[in-house]
Amino acid sequence: MKTTFKIVVFLLITILGCRTTKKVTVQEQLPSLKVRSIEKIYDSIINCALKFDTISLKYNVKVIESNNRSYEASGSLRIIKDNLIWISIQGPLNIELARIMIKNDTIYFYNKILNEYMIKHISYIYNSYGVNLEFKDIQNILLNEFFLIQETDEERNIMNNTPEHINEKEFIRKNLFKSKEKDSTEYFIVLKSYRKHKVKRLIKKYERPNLILQTFKINTFYKICEINIDDFYNKRKANIKYLKHTQINDKFFPTSIEFNYSDTLNKYIIFLEYTKINIEPNVTFPFNIPKDAKIIE
Questions:
Q1: Looking at residue 152, what is its pLDDT?
Q2: Which residues, 6 or more positions from 269, have their beta carbon under 8 angstroms from its beta carbon?
Q3: Could you tell me where the DSSP H helices lie in the chain?
Q4: How far is residue 202's CA from residue 217's CA, in Å, rounded to a whole number?
Q5: Angle, alpha carbons 35-41-45 (nearest 5°)
Q6: Domain annotation covers residue 276
Q7: Cα 265 from Cα 26, distance rounded (Å)
Q8: How many domains is the chain partitioned into structurally?
Q9: pTM of the entire predicted model
């Protein structure tokens, strides 16, 4: 069952009482976006995010590997905003296979079938996969909120300072640029972490330029509907599409997410669907590891 942990970690990398309302796809035609500054776009994204302290979701997930081998699972996802992520993974017949908990800087994993566990600092993701994701990055990917891959110590210091939104907005203002890309099927804003001419210059100068290009496509609801991440040095790419949303408390929340990841050796596709969403539920976050459980080295 190490495969189970590998799948969930990959999801996080590409990472990872329901109110029933109208489903909205990102392709719906709405009035064109007004010309706005980076700061106002960022403020609109923050203001349009669903507000909650605790959220509970039921999900279905399917993972397809490059050899066409696929895995399917379902389960529960619970989040205390900016504090804790709790995941229960279920297999056939709703039998619980494993639990994962991420609490600030620590990842906990327990395989119920084999009675084995792992407790790692969140830097395990970087050490194992070369992707520097913090707790909030993982949370925001799952919730369709803003996140940025950190490339340098300077960027990391800016992002970790408080007050959070002020510094994050200042970082985004200095490091994201509005693209002039257009699309005939929908109206959106495109933000990029590097200007096009700089990317071309670096690619021409270096065979493997040490840069990560992030592209955000933002729709007329001020929701991020697509993210592209190009890691030129490590020759890998990730794409995240938020395909459908539902309206909760006058805010749009994702219900269907597609993750694509590829490098020189592997390719993965993950389909994640939230089938039930409950805001401010009365739920617990149980995570007990039996004394006789074995440590996964």
A1: 47
A2: 63, 64, 258, 259, 260, 261
A3: 2-13, 38-47, 123-129, 135-143, 153-160, 164-175, 196-205
A4: 23
A5: 140
A6: yes
A7: 32
A8: 1
A9: 0.81
Please report where in the chains the tokens 């205390």 appear, as a residue. 80
Q: Give me 168's structure tokens.
A: 């994050």
Instruction: Give 154's contacts (C-beta < 8 A, 6+ positions apart).
Output: none
Write out the DSSP string of 105-165: TEEEEEETTTTEEEEEETHHHHHHHS----HHHHHHHHHT-------SHHHHHHHHSSSHH
Q: What's the CA dihedral at 133, 135, 138, 141 to 10 degrees? A: -110
User: Considering the domain boundaries, does residue 291 fall inside one?
Assistant: no
* SS3 of residue 273 by DSSP: strand
Domain CATH number, residue 195: 2.50.20.10
Q: Which tokens in the block code for residue 2?
A: 């190490």
Map tokens 């909760």 to a residue: 248
- Token pair of 260 as six digits: 């694509």
Q: What is the DSSP letter of 255?
A: E
- The closest of 79, 50, 19 to 253, measured between CA atoms, is 50
**Range 228-267 burial, b when 16+ CB lie within 10 A, else e:** bbbbbeeebbbbbbbbbbbebeebbbbbbbbbbbeeeeee
The per-residue pLDDT for range 2-35, each reduced to its tens digit, is 444 555 554 554 443 222 333 434 334 444 455 5
Q: Are 80 and 296 in contact (CB under 8 A)?
A: no
**Separation of alpha carbons 156 and 41, rounded Å:** 22
